[in-house]
Amino acid sequence: MRILVTGGAGYIGSHTAALLAHRGDFVVVLDSLEHGYRRAVGGLPLIVGSTHDGPLVREVIGHHAIEAVVHFAAYKAAGESMTDPGKYFENNVGGSLRLIAAANAAGVRKFVFSSTAAVYGTPSTLPVKEGDALRPENPYGESKLIVEQILKWYDACHGLRSVALRYFNAAGAALDGENGEDPRQVANLIPLVMKVATGRAPVLRVFGADYPTKDGSGVRDYIHVLDLAEAHARALDFLAADKPSDVFNVGTGQGASVFEVLEAARRISGQDIPAEIVGRRPGDPAAVFADNRKAREGLGWSPRYGLKEIISTAWQWHRRHPDGFDQV
Ligand SMILES: NC(=O)c1ccc[n+]([C@@H]2O[C@H](COP(=O)([O-])OP(=O)(O)OC[C@H]3O[C@@H](n4cnc5c(N)ncnc54)[C@H](O)[C@@H]3O)[C@@H](O)[C@H]2O)c1
Hints:
Elements: E1 2-6, H1 11-22, E2 26-31, H2 38-41, E3 46-48, H3 54-63, E4 68-71, H4 78-83, H5 85-105, E5 110-116, H6 139-158, E6 161-167, E7 169-171, H7 189-197, E8 204-207, E9 219-220, E10 222-224, H8 225-240, E11 246-250, E12 256-257, H9 258-269, E13 275-278, H10 293-299, H11 307-320
Parallel strand pairs: 1-2, 1-4, 2-3, 4-5, 5-6, 6-11, 7-10, 8-13
Antiparallel strand pairs: 9-12
Helix pairs in contact: 1-8, 3-5, 5-6, 7-9, 7-11, 9-11
Nicotinamide-adenine-dinucleotide is lined by residues 6-7, 9-13, 30-36, 50-52, 72-74, 76, 91, 95, 114, 116, 167, 169-170.
């Protein structure tokens, strides 16, 4: 297939672009490089530009005879979206709408979208299923839900079929340790643990150890970035097989606690990784993990990697590139 990958210089997009190219698809990346890195794109064609630029998107699609768009380009910091909601609606909704409109006008009929478990907010039952209530608790999650709805209507009105993948917590790195999550931009647990392990931060703060979970710390569903990448390949196959638009959770279905992550990181890295327990953060649910049966059955996808591989690949990446791509 001939595929345009937006945000393909970023963390998940670059792993996915590489996987698609490796399996024989033609891939062209569109990224503003606001957060991504040229080096993450490797040898694939990269167009430095924005999803907001409809004429550019149409030209790229026409020039490369693009059949499908895989859309990662967005801002992703839920906390920042609470202090600057306009930034998130402008880029995540406005940029996506311009991209979708341009792709549709240029004749694209297959679209895969990076959604998020944040569309559920605090789940009322676990594991979370696709049909459960959608109650985002921050502008970031809301911006993704709005795009899911835009896509639903572009299918109903224009026949643009789409798959929205609701990722749980993306984590881990390339198996060779040469591509991973930017240590400077993240507020997620595993990169923070790695920052302490590499001596870039003195101590890991554990937000709450009095939750009603197995060991009192928060529980999340960590999904390896390569499993996420594979889910996009399966979603493209699903659309190529003329299946109707749909939405899938992409998680392992297993929750890991903060203390379990910390212990695994200490064991694998051989570092002390000091931690201190501080109060809960407002708005953090005790536990979130996916029911992934729909993706298993509908996409023929299943996760290959667990917490051990997530931590060991992340450790390799962070140890070799503690400041990310620029400092190598
Ligand atoms: N990382 C996670 O745990 C997670 C979880 C759920 C959903 N997601 C979603 O997955 C997608 C990818 O996340 P990531 O972790 O790889 O983030 P990332 O920040 O590493 O990658 C996003 C990329 O998009 C680019 N970009 C942003 N706005 C753009 C625009 N308007 N035009 C062109 N390029 C633009 C950035 O330069 C960056 O390279 C995002 O949509 C994010 O919301 C991520």
